[in-house]
Design a protein that fits this description.
alpha/beta, five-stranded mixed sheet, two-stranded antiparallel sheet
Length: 228
């Protein structure tokens, strides 16, 4: 138990067994594995992260993230994936890069599709948004702060290396990539031009937002009208 605790639950059973044999233990490796498994289970129970449902309010949270898009003419593309937390309304925009001007342009188009500006915007700690961290608090880039002030948005950055703190946009990225990036799973053909990708992203948004959501039992486009 001490070795499991010291390794934060990562120590391997064979390593523990070797250590025990060096101390004179004569039991089998199977016995050690069972004991280590029980110790790891007890450790996980004491340190397991607890998740609770996130009950959102209308017009409060807007999240976004980036996903890797398909290649067009041998050049990589990116997918801007935004998500309005209350209505589950999704916006996917293809881009060539993720520079700060592109981020602001995507914010502008996303808010126009929302038909309004939510209170908060949550995203990663990438350098286009977060210039530094002081005492664990994100210091926003002044241009992003100015853009947020212009649109009436307060910019928030999630906890570093913690995708669970913005799960809605993470799911949007996963769904968008599965439907828009050509793979053997979806049998999509390559895009002939960037305009074709843009049209595919628009069609994806129209179809996804018109479909009944599993949690709300209503299409996001209907909920968006209430959220507006």
């Amino acid at each position: 138990e001490e070795w499991v605790d010291r390794s934060h639950g990562r120590v391997r059973a064979d390593v523990v067994h070797d250590k025990l044999r060096a101390l004179g233990f004569e039991g089998s490796e199977r016995t050690t594995r069972r004991a280590v498994a029980a110790a790891k289970k007890a450790y996980a129970a004491g340190y397991r992260r607890v998740f609770r449902p996130w009950v959102t309010e209308p017009a409060v949270w807007f999240q976004f993230d980036w996903g890797k898009g398909p290649k067009i003419g041998g050049r990589d593309t990116l997918l801007w994936c935004a998500w309005l937390a209350w209505s589950r309304f999704r916006v996917v925009i293809p881009t060539w890069d993720r520079t700060r001007p592109t981020v602001i342009a995507c914010i502008d188009e996303t808010l126009r599709r929302f038909g309004g500006s939510p209170t908060y915007r949550l995203t990663d700690n990438e350098r286009t948004v977060t210039a530094d961290r002081v005492a664990g608090i994100a210091v926003k880039h002044p241009v992003i702060v100015a853009a947020g002030r212009h649109y009436g948005l307060t910019v928030h950055a999630c906890v570093p290396a913690d995708p669970a703190s913005k799960g809605g946009s993470e799911s949007t990225v996963k769904i968008a990539k599965a439907d828009l990036v050509p793979t053997e799973a979806n049998l999509l053909e390559e895009y002939g031009s960037f305009a074709d990708l843009r049209a595919a992203c628009d069609a994806f948004c129209d179809e996804d937002n018109a479909r009944e959501h599993r949690e709300t039992r209503r299409p996001p486009i209907e909920l968006l009208a209430d959220e507006r």
